[in-house]
Amino acid sequence: MKLVNHLSSIPDARRGQGMKYELGSLLLFSIMAVLSGATSYRKIERYIHNHRERLNNLCDINWNRAPAHNSIRYALQGLDAKEVEKSFRQHSLELNEGSSAYGSISMDGKVLRGSFDHFEDRKAAQVVSALAVQSNLVLGHIWIIDEDGKKQHEIQAVQELIKGLGVADQLFTLDALHTQKNS
User: What is the pLDDT of residue 132?
Assistant: First the structure.
């Protein structure tokens, strides 16, 4: 199954009249735009506009024009992050041909650059990611922040991610931080 099909399975929060552009294709094109350097909704719109014919062929669609930047913003802001993560995890499982054997899995926490906000007094966002080393496949990630906005420890976040991925019988590489006995 293609990534666009997994992205299409994400619930669409847009109103009926706002669904002119199919969500899976819109998400895929937005991802491609960001990977190509787009840093705003207008730049995503410009990317889709410039590559519309090739993108139409890629997803077997017939968009006459690129969606407006407001349409892109509404679609992206209405997404449920857990559903997006679920679709990416399903896609990565499929890329591994349904096997639960990944070889070694590297897990590491990172602070997302530019996520600190002095004005809103918001701490920098932190995430732990799991990477299947042999296939260079990102299996999933988890925020190091709980529902109340309080930071949890990276050790607990890694344990939660391992449980969520169902990959407990694999070889993991982790930072020295995870060698603590009482965690």
Answer: 85
